[in-house]
Write a structure and sequence with these properties.
Largest interface: A-B, 36 and 37 residues
Strand content of chain A: 5-15%
Number of domains of chain B: 1
Number of helices of chain A: 13
Number of strands of chain B: 5
Number of domains of chain A: 1
CATH superfamily of chain B: NADH:ubiquinone oxidoreductase Nqo5 subunit
Strand order of the largest sheet of chain B: 1-2-5-4-3
CATH superfamily of chain A: Cytochrome-c3 Hydrogenase, chain B
Order of helices and strands of chain B: HEEHEEEHHH
Number of helices of chain B: 5
Structural class of chain A: alpha+beta
Shape of chain B: elongated
CATH class of chain A: Mainly Alpha
CATH topology of chain A: Cytochrome-c3 Hydrogenase, chain B
Oligomer: heterodimer
CATH class of chain B: Alpha Beta
Structural class of chain B: alpha+beta
Chain lengths: 392, 176
């Protein structure tokens, strides 16, 4: 049954359609959630107007970590931009590297080697598992189940070990470089990855039993935070948020990039479109990613040439005038880079399209109305928002 | 993509077409033709998803380029509509009534590029910058270095100590 709040206390609408909220009446209260708050992912804040326990109006404020990446890149050569882009998104930085590298390669007419494509796909799926692990911990934590976060952080750490041996770094890998990838897989990587995947599967089984079968979790997530499927197009909803509403859209399947055409998978969907379904879609997405990593490692062709394509002198690398858009399916939805070049050695414009831009702003502001204060954190986390994507 | 362009051209006056990939093309559209083209693409061609709305500053040509990127999720093709605006009069019609999410993009473009979208909800609200009174920062003529030098005081570099020597000095000043 859908969540039906008591609307008797809600303010009247003015003739202009705006809410008539008089703070001096003592009936309403302004409440700030964030920017420092355990129920907020990243640095953003929610300005909530509450009446009793329920939110009557919510406004999202961003601007706490604007670093001006898009502007910075306009003053840097194409290769100097490469180490910057991963810093746009901490929990899943590899998508920035892939989208930027693919856009530059397309505009410069560079073809990358087959094995580099497989390694790129492997990195992206590893990053996806990591991002979902953080999400599962956050979603459980928003409802007071702190121990789930400890388990998922543990397995995420094991995956960071695999990242470290593959790329030399744990968080910002700077591995997917325009022209290919920096290195090949180390010896014995497949075996160690298999051990990690087994640990992840065991943890997921525990999470399924302790979190998804927990009566409190079910009670506080089922029927709450409903997204109507008709909003999916008008609000630009993508990824698990759309798939939980029964819209089976996944860029990996719809516009296959890298080596996804060679892999067997079906987009994970749900139908209830509430917090529980979105969490469950993501849990099942991890299981699919674990399977994809296994498929990639078993089907990857042997190395038969250099991993890196031949690049021009990167210090004097000029790319002809053009524009393109490259997208990929990250853990939160459609991630894309719109890159414009003007024939010089610097990009004219780089625009990052993160899924949180629509999920955390216009959608969250609409959904947050009529929600109980105690459910605000859980609702926000269920949209899987990362503020750095909003203010690049 | 060329097929779509030819089809659209029979209905609307269109500008230059760039065939970027099999599933991505860019079309230049007149400012006053944008709305009918958007409606047509959304209602008759299945381009129901607004992927992004952003601007490019072509300062040498004295114009801004607005890019409306639309996606047809059923056929998995994208089309980018380019609208050129006079840099001296950067005003554009809002499209938040077609895609509500466009209001956020328009708010950001007003703040970062100084392009106005009258009647867009909350377009004059602060989005990222609070109390900004300088040139919109994403314009090409905004100099970040100059702004930084003028706004913030110079901070000296930090002094680096040898940890062993430093702690010795702190803990046993008499022995040094």
């Amino acid at each position: 049954m859908l969540y039906q709040p008591d609307r008797s206390q809600y303010p009247d609408m003015g003739p202009d359609g705006k809410l008539d909220i008089d703070l001096s009446s003592g009936k309403y209260l302004k409440l700030w959630q964030g920017p420092q708050h355990p129920g907020i992912t990243g640095n953003m804040s929610l300005e909530l107007t509450v009446c009793g326990d329920e939110v009557v109006e919510g406004k999202v404020h961003v601007g706490y970590l604007h670093r001006g990446f898009e502007k910075l890149m306009e003053r840097r050569s194409f290769i100097q931009c490469f180490p910057i882009v991963c810093r746009i998104c901490v929990p899943e930085p590899d998508f920035n590297e892939y989208c930027y590298a693919a856009a530059v390669e397309e505009l410069a007419g560079i073809e990358i080697s087959e094995r580099a494509k497989w390694i790129r796909t492997l990195i992206l799926e590893m990053g996806r598992i990591n991002s979902y692990m953080m999400y599962l911990g956050g979603q459980a934590g928003a409802l007071g189940m702190g121990v789930i976060g400890q388990w998922t952080t543990y397995v995420r750490d094991l995956m960071l070990d695999r990242f470290e041996e593959l790329t030399g770094a744990r968080i910002y890998h700077m591995f997917i470089i325009p022209g290919g990838v920096r290195d090949d897989l180390p010896a014995g990587f497949e075996d160690r990855m298999e051990e990690t995947l087994k640990e992840i599967e065991a943890t997921l089984k525990d999470v399924q039993e302790v979190m998804f079968q927990n009566a409190v979790f079910k009670k506080r997530t089922k029927g709450i935070g409903y997204i109507d499927p008709s909003l999916v197009d008008s609000y630009g909803i993508t990824g698990p948020n759309a798939r939980a509403a029964g819209i089976a859209k996944d860029v990996r399947a719809d516009q296959p990039y890298l080596v996804y055409p060679h892999l067997d998978f079906e987009p994970v969907t749900g139908k209830d479109s509430d917090i529980f379904t979105r969490s469950d879609v993501r849990r099942r997405d991890v299981i699919m990613s674990v399977d994809l990593v296994r498929q990639i490692l078993s089907r990857m062709p042997k190395k038969d040439g250099p991993l890196m394509a031949k690049l021009p002198n990167v210090l004097h690398w000029k790319i002809p005038r053009g524009e393109t858009y490259i997208r990929g399916e990250c853990s939160r939805g459609e991630y894309g880079f719109y890159v414009v070049t003007d024939g010089s050695g610097y990009p004219r414009r780089v625009n990052v399209r993160g899924p949180s831009y629509t999920h955390a702003m216009s959608l969250l502001q609409r959904m947050i109305v009529n929600v109980n204060i105690a459910d605000v954190a859980s609702l926000m986390v269920s949209l899987h928002t990362y503020p750095p994507e909003i203010e690049r | 993509m060329r097929e779509l362009y030819e089809k659209l051209k029979t209905r609307f006056p269109l500008g230059e077409f760039t065939d970027q990939r099999d599933n991505l093309g860019f079309i230049t559209v007149d400012k006053d033709q944008l709305r009918p083209v958007l409606y047509h693409l959304r209602d008759h061609e299945g381009f129901s998803h607004l992927v992004l709305l952003t601007a490019v500053d072509w300062i040498e040509e004295d114009r801004f380029q607005l890019t409306y990127l639309l996606s047809n999720r059923t056929r998995s093709v994208d089309v980018g509509l380019r609208v050129m605006l006079d840099r001296g009069e950067p005003v554009m019609e809002t499209i938040h009534d077609i895609w509500p999410t466009a209001a956020t993009y328009q708010c950001e473009l007003r703040e970062m590029f100084g392009i106005d979208f009258p009647d867009s909800p909350g377009v004059m609200d602060d989005f990222i910058l609070e109390g900004w009174d300088d040139l919109p920062p994403y314009r090409r003529d905004f100099d970040t270095k100059k702004y930084s030098d003028e706004t913030y005081a110079h901070r000296e570099g930090r002094v680096t100590h040898d940890p062993a020597e430093y702690m010795k000095k702190q803990l046993y000043p008499d022995e040094v």
